[in-house]
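Hi R.,

Here's the chain you asked about this morning:
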Amino acid sequence: MTKQEQVKAIFIEEAGEIIEKLDVDILRFEENSTDFDLLNEIFRGVHTLKGNANAFGFTRLGEFVHHFEDVLDYYRSTKEVIETAQLELIVNSVDVIKEVMVCELDALPDLPNDYEECLEGIKSLIASKKRGSVESIPVEATATFADLASEFGLDCPDQYENDMTQSIEIMRAAYQEGMQIYRIELTLDTDSYKRGFDHLIFIGLLAEKAVSIESFFNLESVPPLDNFSCEENYQNKMGIVLLTTQSRAEVEENFEFLFDHEYSIQPIEPVSQPSVTVEAVEATVESPVAMETPKAVQTPSAAAKPSPGSDISSLSNGAKSTIRIDTFKLDELFDSVGELVIAQNFIAQNEKIRLIEDESISRTIETLSKITKRIQDRVMSLRMVAIRDTFDKMKRVVRDTSKKTGKELHLNVMGEETEIDKTMIDSLSDPMIHIIRNAIDHGLEADAAERISVGKKVEGNITLRAYHKSGSIVISVSDDGRGINKAKVLQKAIERGIITGDENLTDSQIFGLIMQPGFSTADTISDLSGRGVGLDVVKTSIEKLRGKIEIESKEGEGTTISMVLPLTLAIIDGMLVEAAGEIYIIPTLSVVESFRPEQEIVHALKEKGEFVSLRGQHLPIIRLSDVFSLKAERIEPWEGILVCVETEAGRIAIMVDELVGRQQVVIKPLGKSLAKLKEISGGAILGSGDIALILNVDALRPVIEGTHA
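And the predicted structure, written out as tokens:
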């Protein structure tokens, strides 16, 4: 990958982050359109996106955000009240930005359908606002524009330098301890406007945190009006004298997207203090970072411009800094730590080492165990991120679906700080979007009259919640709508041939039927509140993450659909069992209970296999020796132990010889030859060095007369 490609990859990643943040911030601003601090933050994101898009040739995106920036700049400058229609246009513009970014990345020739309409709306809005501003200027005020040339000193070649020198002396007079004086000169290229940069932008950025600022333009190279082009920059030199409390690195951050030759920053020392080199000052201020990344403070530009692949967020006063790391490297580190844990367990459980009765060796092994556990926890935490960002995206889904359906609703969000494995975040968005849309569109009552008729408030409630439960992450979507009609679900399931009607199903199993493929048809939308439309896709997506779907519903009161997920995809919490001399791992998430059955509750039916009666339910008994064709002495179920597990088809009882224990293990993928065994989902290396297979309980079926049913 070339240097240019690396920089472009960084831009694409940063642009994605900016657009994601815009999507969240614009909803917050819609709720409180008088929050102009938030509007300033949105403006800065759009401004950064504009400059970068044009610099990397994404001209269609650059053009749109250029005009969008004008609208944001107008409102943040005037603090004018934003009307509903204008606010809707601003919100829709963020949607267009997201879609145009996709078109640019995929090099699609066609733009989104709303692109032209939204762009024309933005242009019309800003034109009307500017027209109104011009009309409001008194006639006598326009006369002041006649003598601008003389104010800039075009008749005196030395006027520019004289003004800069005079301004510096004024700043020195106003200087106080803790302040810095900088002489900044901008020599922007002629195409800077097309790249999204002009001089006033930088004056505005510097002025935000300046004690005092003064600027001077050199207009000697501006051509006559006949040869003038508004798309070209003719101001080849502009000077700024800045008095601020910011460090040089902080000042330089304002120019991070310019080329090095387009700006220069010269520190000016106050008269009352001895001269100190810039490097010495920065070394003192930045010492915490300098020890970690010495190259970051070698030159001013290095401090402000991170190298490809990393992102230094803050370099001042030892503030918290972050670095962007390729997830592939993080996965490699995680795998290595997994190997370390296995090696440590092997040492700790090795019988030969245990026989050595030496206190120092025991103490060393114990210390090694603690350090390994600490490293494992730290590396695990690197992959864990708060689910807040994902929940913020769902707020937009709720808003859009509410507007499309015309239903008034309130979104409750709980557990935003709950952390989840980063590798699972991307896979969760689509299932969550589908469940939320289903809850609003079909779960909530059709209109206000229907809700009022059953004693509910007009405004519906959707609750999005994340929490920890028994070593798992649970993400639930609840509504206070109609609920699910169990009788109609059973009727439709029988009509579709999903069940025969003879089964004795629990409530959870009945609700689970709506997630079966082929269950939903057009007529189920009215009969079953539309539940099940595409929910089989949701179920498949969650199962790929080794999770499961749980549905709770009460007719007339509402429904809760929960996604129960493991904390991470790399480590599984499992119950170790022994069967036919082999060790197997059953995911703890699936285990309901384990017990040794009494002889009278075990039954054998001809051509049906063995069953055990457990609290009114008849559970099929699965012998692992039969499933994997193992040669083992056949014992009766009451002589062994049964592990009751929950599967998508209901509960089953797995017969084992012994419960070895519960342990967290690092999952290892199987080779191509074993990958075809649907009863096995992976393997793990135990502390003894032995390999244990992880069972896929959903694929286990009763075995009749030695063959799979």
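Confidence is low (pLDDT under 50) at residues 136-155, 273-319, 521-533, 704-709.

Let me know if you need anything else.
M.
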